[in-house]
Amino acid sequence: MTHRYPTILAIVLMALGLLVPVGETGWIGSGSALACGLLSCAAVAFCLLPGLRGREHVVSGAALLLGAAAPLLLLRGAGPFGVEAPGLWLFVAGLMLFLWQRLEVLARLPGRGIAALIAPGLFGVAVLYLWQIMVVGFAVPQVLLPSPAQVGHVLATRMDILWPDFRQTFLKAVVAGFATGSSLGFVVALAADRVPFLKRGVLPLCDLMSAVPIVGIAPIMVMWFGFDWHSKAAVVAVVTFFPMLVNTLAGLSSTDAMQRVRNGWH
Amino acid sequence: MTTDAATLPARVAIGHKGGFVYRFAPIAAVVVFLLVCWYALAVWLNAPLVIDQHTRDETSWTARDLVVGTWSMERPVLPAPHQIAENLRETVFNTPIDSKRSLVYHAGVTVSATLLGFVFGSLLGILLAVGIVHLAALDRSLLPWIIASQAVPILAIAPMVVVVLGNLGLDGLLPKAIISMYLCFFPVTIGMVKGLRSPDPLQLDLMRTYSASQAQTFRKLRWPAATAFLFTSLKVAIATSLVGAIVGELPTGAQAGLGARLLSGSYYGQTVQIWSALVMASLLGLGLVFLVGMAERLVLRSQGAPP
């Protein structure tokens, strides 16, 4: 058991967090938060028992869930604590240490498909969770940085505004621009592959283009194609054209003479 | 030219592989073709405006007047290349460098943000790569998010970064540098992860038989093996870093920088100014990539690569 000590440290941090004062009322002020925190500590400690095998994952999952719930419950009641709640932040630090511990264990498991998504999923959720706790705990003004919950709320309730935007940006500009740019790139690549002279002329210029900040053409495209989606599609087309051209050409050149002769295409 | 060709072995002059003509004739042909297209396009796009002007002045015009007119407009839809060159010459050489109208001044502002962001981004990229290679948990859980981070459109993030940092009392160079960093850490991380993993199992096993520590394996095997990968990604990174700096100048309504020149040009319909800023940005990009390439050659040669 190489990962005993971090886990023990995590328990100590979490337990300390439950003892250290939080605001004026402390954890006592919110019974459910305290209960979740204690249960979580117990579950983490339970993970240290030998011979758990598969059950270890269930128990640690429960520990993480309960531990994550405790600060959320605490913050729901009393207002923002900021630096006046060392207990809260100690508890969160312990929880994150335990989470890191679990990520290391998960990373060592052989996993494919959905199982391989658990570790990155957990990591992503943890980042969102920390963001939420920090924003609520320190009462960061919404103008500066909204919490993920607020973002999610708007995302869920204002679909009527977002859907037309999505249609304008994606279904019109991106699809049209992508289709134009990549098909043009493909055709030019086919031509350049047939005509070596063209290839030697085009490739160095494409290398040059990769160093050019293409965003700069955006205002020009707006001037040419107007404010509707056509100008955006034009920018997308230019941006997709060069990678498509270079990589298609590389792919076509990677065939060797034998393969080309066999297929009668040389 | 003819005397040169006579003294050279004939094959080299005509187009032996690796010869000067063989390499540059196709490029020149494509460039000339593009220039011809450009001039033709300028006539086509600008013609309506010129004809309009003539009709309003009730003057007669010939085809020659039309062509000359389209290539010398004050605010053309598409300026001709020589107009852009003229504007570049004017703003680069004939304007004092500390003037707001000097393109060198604006380029300097953008380059400083680019370089700062490039340094931040490269360091962050290398750090992340080292972490990912050595910690299994990071490899599994962080790498997918790093890739996802680049799917977030930078143009959407840029204003937020500027606002948040501005509120913390940081403005000027730093927000732009952070936007640059966000764009340019990615190629470095990906390239370095690949590079640090490039030693094959035999070499790693050899280090193990020497009972080398992880730090020693890193210093003596992984890091040298990753150098070539590092420079390849640094070349990509510095180009994207320039893009980041320019994007960072767009939402702030910045007073200086190439992005600000692009923006003010599009506000006032100064197309020649937009194009010259764009050409300047491209030249800067090429120059920066070239510098990284020089550094690459020096470092790799000092490591014993064939010149």
Secondary-structure map:
The complex is a heterodimer of chains A (266) and B (307).
Chain A: H1 4-19, H2 31-47, H3 55-77, H4 86-108, H5 115-137, H6 148-157, H7 159-194, H8 196-210, H9 218-225, H10 229-253, H11 257-262
Chain B: H1 2-7, H2 10-14, H3 20-57, H4 63-70, H5 81-93, H6 103-134, H7 136-149, H8 154-167, H9 173-196, H10 201-209, H11 214-249, H12 258-267, H13 271-302
Structure write-up:
The complex is a heterodimer of chains A (266) and B (307). By secondary structure, chain A is mainly alpha-helical. In chain A, α1 (4-19) packs antiparallel against α2, α2 packs antiparallel against α3 and α3 (55-77) packs antiparallel against α4. Chain A has 2 domains: 4-142; 159-262. In chain A, 30% of the residues are buried. Helices cover 76% and strands 0% of the residues of chain A. The radius of gyration of chain A is 28 Å and the shape is elongated. Chain A has helices at 4-19, 31-47, 55-77, 86-108, 115-137, 148-157, 159-194, 196-210, 218-225, 229-253, 257-262. Chain B has 307 residues and is mainly α. Chain B has 2 domains: 15-77; 103-302, MetI-like fold. Helices cover 79% and strands 0% of the residues of chain B. Chain B contains 13 helices and no strands. Chain B has helices spanning 2-7, 10-14, 20-57, 63-70, 81-93, 103-134, 136-149, 154-167, 173-196, 201-209, 214-249, 258-267, 271-302. In chain B, α6 runs antiparallel to α7 and α8 (154-167) crosses α9. The longest helix of chain B has 38 residues, at 20-57. Mean pLDDT of chain B is 84; it is low at 1-14.
